[in-house]
Amino acid sequence: MVYPGAVAQPWTERRDRELVWGLVPALIMLASLTAGPIAYLWLTSLTPLNLAQPATQWNFDQPLANYASMFGDPRFANSVVVQVKLSIASVVLQLLCGLGVALLLHPNTKIRTVARSGMLVPMVLPPIVVGITWLALFTVDISPIHRLFAWIGLPFGPLLTNPSTALWAVVFAGTWQHFPFAMLMSLAALQMVPEGPIEAARIDGASRFQVFWHVRLPFIAPTLVVAGLFILIDSVKAFPLLYIMTDGGPGEVTEVTNYYVYRQVFTFSLWGYGSAIAVLMMIAVFLLSYLIDRITRRNDGAWA
Amino acid sequence: MKKPSITNGVNRGRRRLVAAGSVAVASAALGLRAPAVIGQTKRFSGVTLNVSCWSAKYPRLLEAYVGEFGELTGAKVNYDTPGLQVYNQRADLELSTKGAGYDVLNITFIFSNRWIGNGWFTPLDPYLNDRNKTQADFDFADFLPGAVSPMKDRKGVVYGVPWVTDSGMSVATRYDILQASGLGMPDTFEELEKTLAVIHKKDGVAGFLTDNHWGFWYPPFLQGYGGDVFRGAPDDLMPTLDTPEAIHSADLLARIVRNYSLPGAGGMSYGQTQELLRAGKANYAFVTHVGGMSHAEPEAKVAKTLHFSLYPRGPKGRFPGIASHGWGIPAGSKNKDAAWEFIKWATSKTLITRMVREKHLGSVTRRSIYDAPEYRKLINVNGQDTGQIVLDTIKLGEQGHMKYRTPPVYPQVNVQLNQAIGRIISGQMSAKESMTQAQTSLIADFRRAGMKI
């Protein structure tokens, strides 16, 4: 019913206005919980804030000094190189393990459900527990793994204190914890593959590998790409395993950028410098997120 | 103005009645003691003290007694003991912002200069010198001078009351192996290397094992060969990690770890090495007195074969690591009088003596307790008076060699030393390359921290 004198508004306009008003509380929360801290981080990165020198707070005399210092800091450069190695290895290993296990669990077998649940256990363990577990497993004198290999005549030395293997040992532990994510994504994608092309390939005499390579993999590839990008972002946040297992060592072999920020901020109290590195990391992660968004949208279009 | 209503009056009357009833019931419940309690107000009733210290033996044991402080004073105490690193970070943040979140905090040794020098703790002299606040039986002069000195600023003002002076020393968990080889505890670094060459892998036991806190274990080597961390701490903080003495001593320490330790020992944390030493997997170790005494506990496999000695010396002398920790009152605390009462209680002769007797507290800072036969008996290990080794070590502290450890930038030095020695042990770099890199990186770190060197 339209009251006399009232200006009739199209229903969609009113709906949109109500939707905007409905979103306002959420937007305020988002701004205060996300944008606010990010703005503070960015402002801090423009100061030489050092907790030991209170006068350095809100000192914007040389706003780009931290950023300039970063590019002349060989340890920062080293941390980026370590980060790249850790990220690439994590993505490749987790995708391979996740896909491999998903292929094993994909066929309908009685134990599939139980096995699938069991495989999720590492993912739900607190990272500190995972770190302590693998620290013990990599300690030569108490590790059953080392004893087993020594028993079969293939002894090997400590992995975490060997500069050639320390990073890969951490990557291995991280893969053990996080591969279920790739497994779940792969499993879901495998279940979406239509049976028709697979049947056709089999009738044409394709082997199991050929069916996987030419039929299944092209179908699940977009999902694997998205999973890989999520793993990549997650690897940038690597911290607990490194904290427990290597403390960034031996030397700086496992000191990733995240860990370097932690050192600068919490050990040296250089909040300004640490914030500047964190801002750069945030931009890198934002670009990766943007990439995921683009790929996801393209996939949505392709599947529509 | 709001007129009092009949209903309000009835409610008020009812509340009074209920309150009076409650008091009567409570009094009845307290029985004969009730009349003594009523009317007696404890000095700090209603005060809540937030107290924190890193997780060491004394603060952990103290937790069992904290309730007694509440009963004595009426104050409620929120007490926590996080791990050392977590504690340091939390306290550093809290102190730097002059927050009122904590009333009593531990003054961590390596942060003492930074926390005290920046005015983040409350001077305790006004409390110590006021007989209304500190009775004579507290006897501050009873604390070992070597333990108190890190708690003072340059002018000699006291900011903390020490609860431990942890002294670096040596221990052989399988002294029987040394004796069987006709050897005693090595007195010099050269003797140490020769001894380890003899005892390594004897009876399936590695010769040496020490945790990877090289920032604490390496400086005695460095100073023993005539070098130092800084050119002249605390005034001249130019690092001197690339000197021939620094390179030689770093090479020696790394060689010892590489040749005579368990596999992977170069990166083992305190907890890992303690477990392996207790299990008798390795023999000779650098330990603090507190850490070493834990191997004397009955459940340790090596309790019967344990033997202590002073930290070895170099050609230029003996410079063992010493670290004092003490209770202080943050500048931002709103309950300073209650906080001082807590500190006095927590470090009193009475309580410490009880902790020694009831909980076997092994490391103390009061001379009178060191002199007590009961305490000496407690820290006597296999017929050896370890208390004397502690006292001798603290006495060595009077040389002033620990000044390198308290400048505000020491956390940077600590990390650089840990990494530099780690690089040499793991074979990534030679001692010369690694120490030169540490020197360069440290200067860059100092400049980034705003230091002019």
Description:
- The complex is a heterodimer of chains A (304) and B (453).
- Chain A has 304 residues and is an all-alpha fold.
- Chain A has one domain: MetI-like fold, CATH 1.10.3720.10.
- Chain A contains 13 helices and no strands.
- In chain A, helix 8 (166-192) crosses helix 10 (208-236), helix 9 packs across helix 10 and helix 12 (257-267) runs antiparallel to helix 13.
- The longest helix of chain A is centred in the first third of the chain and has 35 residues, at 11-45.
- Chain A is flat and about 75 Å long.
- Chain B is globular.
- In chain B, a hairpin with a 2-residue loop joins strand 11 and strand 12 (384-385).
- Chain B is built from 22 helices and 12 strands.
- With 453 residues, chain B is of the alpha/beta class.
- Chain B starts with 5 loop residues before the first helix and ends in a 5-residue tail after the last helix.
- In chain B, helix 13 packs across helix 21 (410-425).
- In chain B, 45% of the residues lie in helices and 13% in strands.
- Classes of the chains: A mainly alpha (304), B alpha/beta (453).
- The A-B interface holds A 48, 50-54, 56, 69, 73-75, 135, 138-141, 157-158, 160-163, 246-253, 263, 266-270, 273 and B 89, 92-93, 96, 114, 118, 212, 262-269, 272, 276, 281, 408, 411-412, 415, 418-420, 422-423, 425-429, 434, 441, 444-445, 448-450.
- Tell me the CATH superfamily of the largest domain in chain B: Periplasmic binding protein-like II
Number of domains of chain A: 1
- Mean pLDDT across the residues of chain A is 89
- How is the CATH topology of chain A named? MetI-like fold
Distance between the termini of chain A: 40 Å
Cα(first) to Cα(last) distance of chain B is 70 Å
Separate helix tally of chain B: 22
CATH-derived architecture of chain A: Orthogonal Bundle
Number of structural units classed as domains of chain B: 2
Number of helices of chain A: 13
CATH class of chain A: Mainly Alpha
